[in-house]
Amino acid sequence: MSSSFYPSVLYRDGRFIAGAFLTVDITGRITEPTGGASRIDLSGKALLPGFVNAHSHSFQRLIRGR
Hints:
Blueprint: E1 3-12, E2 15-18, E3 22-24, E4 30-31, E5 38-47, H1 58-63
């Protein structure tokens, strides 16, 4: 089962697109639209890609012994 998200604007290819939607399969991967996808209305919202968290405290391991 897949889900199709319908926001007011979708960020794709470096710009915001009105009237576009995004379909995701059961594993969370973006897929081509399918006929049996459940529709999720996100009116009044923008859909943006997630950001990778590169936050680290590795420097604290270096100073721990001092």
